Amino acid sequence: MSFAVNLSSLPLRSPEITTGGYNFPKSVISSTRKRPMLSFATSNSTEEPPTTTPEIELEFIGPKAGEDGKYPVDRVSAASGEKVLRTIMADNKLELYGTYGKVMNCGGGGSCGTCIVEVVEGNELLNERTNTELKYLKKKPESWRLACQTIVGNKENSGKVVIQRLPQWKK
Ligand code: FES
Fold first, then answer.
1. Is residue 47 situated within a structural domain?
2. Is residue 50 assigned to a domain?
3. What is the position in ligand 1's atom list of the atom closest to the CA of 148?
4. pTM
5. pLDDT tens digit sequence for 110-129
């Protein structure tokens, strides 16, 4: 990139010329009164492009149909690979636990097995089931996960994940 600054509006002074006391004829020491023009060149090559973390769009389907017979859906987005599902749900005040889990959950420590969700869509955007999940969800459908073990995204991927809340209430 380059740009120019026009200095024509600035007052112009003759350059100082020292003559060592000798009086040169005026034609010898007169300066050309050309208007100066300064040019600058800049480069953006050292600037880093702005970094943006990819986002995961999440849809949470409620466990109970409303009066119109439709299941409520809450939509939120989260930075890829930064949080587990349980934290995202808590941040957005989405109920995760059933009656027992509300009072008896382990707070995300992976030792109660009550933070169950079902991944309806977007399983490929989540981490693999952990050993904790293999233990607690041994006889449950493959699509069930523990929200405190489920990392949403991997910092590089983006897309949509659809989660059924409290799937045990629907089975
Ligand atoms: S909150 Fe206890 S296992 Fe997830």
1. no
2. no
3. 4
4. 0.71
5. 999 999 999 999 999 999 99
